[in-house]
Amino acid sequence: METADKKTGITVRPQLPEAVPGFKDFGHVPLKSVHNCRDLGGMPAADGKHIRPGRLLRSASLHAMTPEDANALLDEHALVEVVDFRMSGEVDRALDKVGELPFVTYRFLPVLPEHRDTAEPPQPRPGIDAFSMMETVYRTFVTSREGITAYTEFLNGLLERETGATLWHCTQGKDRTGTGAMLVEHALGVSEENIRRDYLATNLFADDMMDELAKLLEHVPLMDKAADQAGAALFAYPRYLDTELSAIKEGWGSVDAYLDQALDFGPDKRARLRELYLA
């Protein structure tokens, strides 16, 4: 019988990844005000090469970014572009502090459909299995018109950046951000095994999410197994990535075909991406 985490009561524990050789600490960038920030530089990719450092960054939102962390991104990581995958309601509630990033391009590319009655991602509710809900959301990332448009513009935009770093994010830097990372990494020839490890690496930097989960459960009476249901939306689980890859393969046959047919990112563009981002 599984034991529960003392702080949150969660029993469906988030899986931690094995290390990726040459990719120290999964590229973690230790900022104080921007969570889950990672530089993909050093990750093994196609033809025995590695992703160049200081070119591809992923993180949670920048709404609480301090001037010190902004300066670190500008000076130490040569940030030139921010891509925001959130919905308009999320942006309105927690606006990125782009004013702290002069001369950095900001692109708003919402991945999820925005309905009239909501501009926020779906949240776990009593009576609904949150793990199944998250699987549905992951399918939406890669099959909806909005998701396909966002990731098409994101990938093709990377071809315009010959120098400097692009940082992409959602709210927690896990789901929509993780999907973006999966697509970039695949296009760069990263193995599926290492793509999975990088996806799960969010769980290594989840102390703030554990605190968020504990706070949520302290005052809000949820359904049975409340901790596991709330945790489903806060952590990275292999079943989510499996669902997403299955949706791609069901619709297009392979990730390569998805890049070609859905995202307008065929072999020539992938070759150019490798020229720009691998060493």
From TrEMBL:
Family annotation (InterPro entries): Prot-tyrosine_phosphatase-like, Tyr/Ser_Pase_IphP-type
SUPFAM superfamilies the record matches: (Phosphotyrosine protein) phosphatases II
Record carries keyword Isomerase: no
One Pfam family matching this protein: Y_phosphatase3
EC numbers on record: 3.1.3.48
Any GO MF annotation of the entry: protein tyrosine phosphatase activity
UniProt entry keywords in alphabetical sequence: Hydrolase
Transmembrane segments: none
Protein name listed in UniProt: Tyrosine-protein phosphatase
Species of the source: Kribbibacterium absianum
